[in-house]
């Protein structure tokens, strides 16, 4: 890994800092504009500059902290760990229970931390976070997140390196809320390239059974389906790659325009979650499509848990782009 992680470089100092709040790094390229926060390395904004006007591809949250984890990195595990408790290599671990209502340790340590800036150019921003020792977590990991804009939209590359003395369990997810411009979610259709899903206890957000086929069920989005009235809190797997090895999911409005989420095989899971934010007439439904390396509670289930040896690294990427636009 480059020595550049030890210093900051701003080739184009276009970051903004609202008052005394966190830094937000603006990048532009390929007809897109994005804003990435130092908190959680979160994608706060992604807009496609269509000639008819800016077209929003993700939800924006408050400046201070990712709204409902919006756009943030979830590591060193995504989802919840049951009761914050797991065994690894025969050793018992007790994490802090960060979601008391569900009695889980949820989404790791990275989503609400300030990441350090490595470099920031007109089209690209790279940030780094060292995950040190925490309650029930005796492992040291170095995480990077690089956001870059180009012809096909936003590409985000993640790395993780075990910088400690012991082999460590690891998982990663990212939590973007997608938009098809200003189209309400109930007027959109969803296409997921996913063949199975894991049943979830909605009270705790934890798996209750092993993967089941989606074919012929209410969870089958292998052909585009309306989201009118649909409620989801579902991890999907058996993701179907295209010929180029990329998995593609789409959220589109009635006019066929929308946003495409692209992932590589390392992200073998996709959590789909609908949320309602706001109050009264301002309440609006939103959809999170969360690429992840493993299901919730993977450290207990032993499913797709990555194990990093001392000095070993891991990397994977995902992306977002506009679809259905002419030209």
Characterize the structure shown:
This protein is mostly beta strands. The strands form 8 sheets. A 10-stranded mixed beta sheet has the order 1-12-13-14-15-31-27-26-19-24, with no helix packed on it. Strands 18-29-28-25-20-23 form a 6-stranded antiparallel beta sheet, with no helix packed on it. A 5-stranded antiparallel beta sheet has the order 2-3-4-5-6, with no helix packed on it. The longest helix has 4 residues.
Short description:
The protein has 327 residues and is mostly beta strands.
Question: Keyphrases for this structure?
Answer:
about 325 residues; mainly beta; 10-stranded mixed β-sheet; 6-stranded antiparallel β-sheet
Measured as a percent range, the helix fraction is under 10%
pLDDT < 50 stretches:
1-14, 278-282
Give the overall shape, derived from the CA principal axes: globular
The termini sit apart by: 38 Å
Overall mean pLDDT: 91
User: Order of strands side by side in the largest beta sheet?
Assistant: 1-12-13-14-15-31-27-26-19-24
Rg (C-alpha, Å): 19 Å
Judged by helices, strands and strand pairing, the structural class is mainly beta
Q: Per DSSP, what share of the residues sits in E-state strands of 2 or more residues?
A: over 45%
Q: Care to count the β-strands?
A: 31
Give me the secondary-structure topology:
Elements: E1 9-10, E2 15-16, E3 24-29, E4 32-37, E5 43-50, E6 53-56, E7 73-74, E8 80-82, E9 85-88, E10 91-94, E11 104-106, E12 116-120, E13 124-131, E14 141-150, E15 153-162, E16 168-170, E17 173-174, E18 177-178, E19 189-191, E20 194-197, E21 200-201, E22 206-207, E23 212-213, E24 225-226, E25 233-239, E26 247-252, E27 258-263, E28 269-277, E29 284-292, H1 298-301, E30 306-308, E31 313-323
Parallel strand pairs: 1-12
Antiparallel strand pairs: 2-3, 3-4, 4-5, 5-6, 7-17, 8-11, 9-10, 12-13, 13-14, 14-15, 15-31, 16-30, 18-29, 19-24, 19-26, 20-23, 20-25, 21-22, 25-28, 26-27, 27-31, 28-29
